[in-house]
Amino acid sequence: MKVALIGGTGNIGEGLAFRLKLAGYDIIIGSRSEEKARSKAEHFNSLVESLGGKGNIEGRLNDEAAELADVAVITIPWQHAFETAERLKSKLKGKIVISPIVPMVVENGIFKYAPPEEGSAGLKLQRILAESSVVVAFNNIPAKRFANPAEKFEWDVAVCSDDDDAKRVVMEIVSSIKGLRAFDAGSLDSSRVIEALTPMLITLAKKNKTVELGVRFV
Q1: Which residues form the Pyrroline-5-carboxylate reductase catalytic N-terminal domain (predicted)?
Q2: Which of 76, 160, 178, 192 could join 185 in a cystine, given CB atoms 3.0 to 4.6 angstroms apart?
Q3: How confident is the model at residue 109 (pLDDT cuts 50, 70, 90)?
Q4: Contact in structure between 92 and 166 (CB atoms under 8 Å)
């Protein structure tokens, strides 16, 4: 299965690039710049090989990555994610699109959830990508820790979608990464709660001077 990281390795894309490759997926890194995409691919190929895997990650322009992928992950900062989805929607038609997007603002040093009028980033993406299956996942993963190959973790990932088949595929992708457990969180309406949790986790870590925090359901 080919998984494209649309927008390169921002957000949690860095951790996804090498961890999913090590789990056996074919990875395509997309970017607005072909040179940047290839450079990132070379970097992650070297990393994967150093970890004992086979480094054949591809670097492509975003539209090429979207067209070649079976599953696409939107790894662009939320401020630019929706316009990118609008531009790529014909390439993403009929495909699974994973949204780890969390719209946030900072007010007086506190991170706050800033959902669009649709109610969440996931719901807005599904409106834009009406002929794709949007699945919300990976929203609460601590990006920097996830990107560290030496990091050991046990985190849970809430996964929601209006397409049950697409949700099952994404839950399998999540579970393929050592240290992650996938939980079925129901329909896409649950994305309102899933996304809103992230700014609280960031604020908790900042106020209590801890490492980045993940989620564990017990």
Answers
A1: 2-102
A2: 160
A3: confident
A4: no
CA angle at 173 for the pair 171 and 176, rounded to the nearest 5°: 110
Structure tokens at 191: 């994305």
CA–CA dist 158, 171 (Å, integer):
9
For strand 110-113 and strand 155-161, is the pairing parallel, antiparallel, or unpaired?
unpaired
What CA–CA distance (Å, rounded) separates 55 from 142? 25
Q: How far is residue 120 from each of residues 10, 78, 110, measured CA to CA in Å?
A: 20, 11, 19
Task: State the DSSP code for 66.
Answer: H
The whole-number pLDDT of residue 85 equals: 97
Residue 147 neighbours by CB under 8 Å, 6+ apart: 12, 14, 15
3-state secondary structure of 25: coil
Integer Cα distance of 152 and 114 in angstroms = 31
- Domains, the chain: 2-207 (3.40.50.720)
Nearest one of 25, 10, 155 to 96, comparing CA atoms: 25
pLDDT tens digits for range 126-152 = 999 999 999 999 999 999 999 999 999
Q: ∠ at Cα 78 (130, 23), nearest 5°?
A: 80
82: left (phi over 0), alpha (psi -120 to 50) or beta: alpha
For helices 34-50 and 13-22, what crossing angle results, to 10°? 50
pTM for this model (two decimals): 0.96
